[in-house]
Amino acid sequence: MALRRSAAARSIGSALAAGLGLMRVSFARGTRRRQEELLLELLKQLALMTEEIHRANLIQHYRLTTDQLDRASDDSALADASSTLDGLSDLRRRQMMYANRQFGALVLAHRVGALDWDQLLGHLRVLCRNSVFAEYWDRTAEHRRSLPGESVDAKVGVVVDVMLEELADDPDEWWVVGSVPEPPAHE
């Protein structure tokens, strides 16, 4: 882990050093237009690095969460401490935790750009056909009520609600989804 951070820090440091070197050359020549162009390019690069760091942080957070879920799945005492779902056998609780993990992985893939909105919907349609996932979704409805309405998680939640309702109405047309919200902007 430290090695990855060190490599990333060196990469960012190298990019900044190169940019500063270019700016020094430009300032020495005194061309104001070129200076502005270089500054804009540096700002674009900084924005890209910021987005990449944000995606890396999301991935790291997901890793920490799944590590905790793995430990809780292996130890019923930890599962009791981390689960808010009552009245489940140890086996069923592990299944619910895994359903949560599958859903989380799909949302993460969308948030970091590995799945576009339509791809996410396709994967969610398949996941909604699973009875364990459907039970997990029903049991965790209260958890989603506190999500900010404009968040990616809330918008995806609305889509899953629609999918599960339509699947219950017509299970033979599971691949068809009615009106779903527009894809959310990445956070």
TrEMBL record:
Q: Name one Pfam family in it.
A: DUF6082
InterPro entries reported for this sequence: DUF6082 (IPR045728)
Please indicate which superkingdom the organism of origin belongs to: Bacteria
Q: What is this protein called?
A: Secreted protein
Biological source species? Streptomyces coacervatus
Tell me the lineage of the source organism.
Bacteria, Bacillati, Actinomycetota, Actinomycetes, Kitasatosporales
